[in-house]
Write a structure and sequence with these properties.
Length: 458
């Protein structure tokens, strides 16, 4: 009989079965969180929705929500005491936790901000000032990935292009088969940036691209930047902490940012910005100027006016929650990766399609190709299909439209041309049924002869 099915009676240090046979020493209950406790922690999730989109907004357990509420009440109870005696101490404790999580040398290298978009603005703002003040020459280059996050692209336009910087986008293949494909294209972009006597002042590298989702060989690209004399390297790792290994000494970038509300169970919104001490951090300032201006970026960012700072104060509580799982954050990360790959392969097999990248280029998110018969032919189609899945099937999943290459839509290739990909996530609250629900919904649409052309335009 399996030990899990055996009824045990405990007697001192011995354990006996129903026939009074000695079977083992007293069983010690696992100290780790149980499946039922996980369900309780996320009981506030809509039970009718298969949430396989943790990547967009993250998730926050009840334990951390309760800690956040306590911080909010501390402020509301006595704002002056909170401001003078609690806020800075609390944020420093959060910074210490982050410093250890990311293997930074010193807590002064860690600043807490709202999100990765704010961190990008901080870094790019000082690049813009360097152009405006003549430290950089007009036409000097900044290099970024073509799949950089939309808000970061806009920030580069606002702070770098407008100041006279020459921006080069690295064209990346998708689907992608190897890290080498990315490294080759990145090297080409750096060579272009250095042509005509220009200097490459900044490289913006995603650790994990958002859409399509691919883990970038960030250490190799940072090393390449050093070899090619790039002034500053900024890694936008919005999805990284809690999803892939994050080690500042190993990566070696000047600046690195990651959200803690996506994969580290904090409430929206909180992120960290790492600034290597050897970098020119004195030129970094929060875009919101408060009376703390000039006291160093960590202090400036810890007070940008009266607002709710509770999400920045619960980082130690989020770590407590993470440590309830076997293996802590590394264990969660490993299990999420293994399960999302398994579910991605299940879906691609069911639909006769492919994954967008090899498993070792995936994190806790995977790109899964849709059947060509759905006829996803534009970004508008992708959004309409996403809405249809949400409203008609209770499935929340982002959809990426891939522009087909020349010749792919010819008659002989059309039936095999994958133009739509789902980005599925896995977090601890997900179950296999979430992905089976998604599989069955798409299979139903296919059986009904559905195409995206059938969906209303608004």
């Amino acid at each position: 009989m399996d030990s899990h099915d055996q009824d045990f009676k405990e007697n001192g240090d011995s354990t006996h079965d129903d026939n009074n046979n000695h079977v083992s020493k007293k069983i010690k209950l696992s100290p780790f969180i149980s499946d039922s406790e996980i369900r309780e922690e996320f009981a506030h999730h809509d039970p009718g929705v298969a949430r396989i989109n943790n990547g967009s907004f993250g998730s926050c357990p009840a334990y951390v929500i309760a800690a956040q509420k306590e911080w909010q009440l501390r402020f509301l109870r006595q704002p002056d005491d909170f401001y003078f005696n609690q806020l800075q101490k609390g944020i420093l404790e959060s910074r210490k936790v982050i410093k250890d999580l990311v293997n930074a040398d010193d807590v002064e290298e860690v600043t807490i901000v709202d999100n990765a978009t704010t961190a990008a603005a901080i870094v790019l703002q000082q690049i813009g000032w360097s152009f405006a003040e003549g430290k950089f020459q007009k036409g000097d280059a900044a290099v970024m990935l073509h799949y950089a996050y939309g808000a970061v692209k806009k920030s580069i336009q606002a702070y770098v292009s407008r100041a006279g910087g020459y921006v080069i986008e690295v064209n990346l293949p998708f689907p992608v088969k190897s890290n080498e494909e990315i490294i080759v294209e990145f090297r080409k972009a750096l060579e272009k940036g250095k042509s005509n006597g220009r200097k490459v002042r900044l490289a913006v590298i995603d650790h994990i691209t958002s859409m399509p989702c691919v883990v970038i060989p960030v250490k190799e690209l940072v090393k390449l930047c050093r070899e090619e004399g790039v002034d500053q390297v900024f890694v936008d790792a919005a999805h990284a902490i809690g999803s892939v290994e994050v080690d500042m000494k190993d990566i070696g970038a000047d600046f690195y940012t990651s959200n803690l509300h996506k994969w580290f169970f904090c409430p929206p919104s909180v992120a960290f910005l790492y600034c290597r001490r050897s970098s020119k951090v004195s030129d970094l300032h929060h875009p919101v100027v408060s009376h703390e201006y000039g006291n160093g970026l960590p202090i400036e960012s810890a007070w940008i006016g009266t607002r709710d700072y509770s999400s920045q104060l619960v980082v130690p509580s989020a770590l407590d929650f993470v440590n309830r799982f076997e293996g802590g954050i590394e264990g969660i990360r490993k299990r999420n990766h293994e399960i999302v790959i398994k579910m991605g392969e299940m879906l691609s097999e069911a639909w006769g399609t492919l994954l967008g990248s090899p498993p070792d280029m995936c994190s806790s998110m995977v790109m899964v190709g849709f059947p060509a018969s759905l006829e996803i032919s534009s970004e508008v189609d992708a959004l309409k299909l996403r809405k249809h899945l949400r409203e008609s099937f209770g499935i929340e999943v982002p959809i990426y439209y891939r522009v087909p290459e020349e010749g792919e839509l010819e008659a002989q290739n059309k039936d095999n041309c994958i133009t739509g990909y789902a980005r599925i996530s896995h977090q601890v609250y997900n179950t296999d049924d979430d992905y089976y629900k998604f599989r069955d919904a798409i299979n139903q649409l296919i059986q009904e002869g559905f195409t995206c052309k059938m969906l209303p335009s608004n």
